[in-house]
Amino acid sequence: MTLTSIEYQSIKEKGICGRYLTHDQIEDFLSAPKNLEVRPVGKSVLGVPIDQMKLGEGPVKILMWSQMHGNESTTTKAVLDLINYLNADLPTSRTILKQCTIMMIPILNPDGAMAYTRANANGIDLNRDAQERSQPESRVLREVFDEFQPDYCFNLHDQRTIFNVGNTPKPATVSFLAPAHDEARSVSVSRGVAMKLVVAMNEQLQNRIPGQVGRYDDAYNANCVGDAFQMTDTPTVLFEAGHYPEDYEREKTRKFIFQALLKGLTIIAENDFNELNVSDYFLIPENQKRYFDILVHNAHVLDSSLIEGDAVGILYKETLVDGAIEFIPKIEKSGNLKGYFGHRTYNALADEDFKIIEGNPTWIDLFR
C-alpha cells in the first residue's frame, strides 16, 4: 500500500468544497461524533467563536492553524480531510495518534472568512501582528501557543495564481517555507528541523506534481507569525496552497496539501529525520511571480493603444457575490511581457483564439 493506505476520495470531507468557507459551514463537522476534542478558545472582533480541535494522545505536540487570512480556505479543507484520515483506524493514523497530540485551529479569522478578505474585521493583517498582538485573533493564537507549548508548528495559507516555480513555466501548486528566525536567515537547529520536514514533503509531492513545488521567500519579518514562532526555537513550516491547472476551486490542490500534511506528521511520529538533509531544502526552486490567469499575445489587435507584439496580462479578482466567489478578470499589465506565462494563453492574431476572445463579452470589455 502507499503512504495513505486508503483512497483519498473515501476520506475527503465532501460536504465542504469551493473557495468560500466560513465558520458556519464547518459547525456540523465540528459537532459530529469523532475522536476529536473541540472547544472555543476565544472570539473574533465581531464575536464569532474561534474553535480549536485536539486529537491524539502522544508526547509530541503539533500546532497548526488555517485561515489566518480569511480568504485562504484550501488548507482548512485539507485539515478536515486529515482529521477524517486520522479517524480511519489505519496503521499510519494509529501511529500518528499514539505518538502525537495535534492541536488545530481551523479558522483563526472567521470575520475575514465571512467577508472573504485577507484582513480581519478591523482591517488588520493578522500575519503582521505577531509582536504587537493588537487583535483578539492574534492574542488567541499566541495564548494557544503558550499554553500548548508545541514541538512543531504548521502555518497554513493559500497563495495567489501569480507564482511559478523558479524560472520554469510550472505553476507553484504547493510552496513551503522554513521561516527565518533572524536577519541573517541563519540555520538554527530548530529551523534545520523545519527544513528537513519540507524536504520530506517535497519528495512526497514530486511523485504527484513534478516540478510544481516551490520555496517561498524567506525574508525575515519578526511581525510574521511563522518567524515569531521560529524565534522561540519551535520548528515551524509555512504551507502555501497554490494553483493547479484549471483548478480555481482548489479541490485538487487540497489533496496535495493533505498529502503533505500527512507526510509531515508521519515523519514526526516516526522520528524519521536521519535520511533528510538540510542542503536539499535549498535545491527547491524559489517562487517567482510570472503568471497571469490569462495572457493575450499580439493584443494590439484588440487595443489600438498597444504596439505590435505587445501582450496583455489579466488576473482574476476573486469577488464575493451572493455567497459565492466569482472570478472577475482585470487587466494587470500590458506591453512587452516576454518571460511571463498564462494559465490560459491566447494569440489575438490566430483566428480561433481571436474568436474566443471576441466572443467572450467579459474579456473583450477589458479592451474597450
UniProtKB/TrEMBL annotation:
PROSITE patterns: PEPTIDASE_M14. Residues 7-268 form the Peptidase M14 domain. Transmembrane segments: none annotated. It holds the Pfam family Peptidase_M14. Belongs to the peptidase M14 family. This is M14 family metallopeptidase.
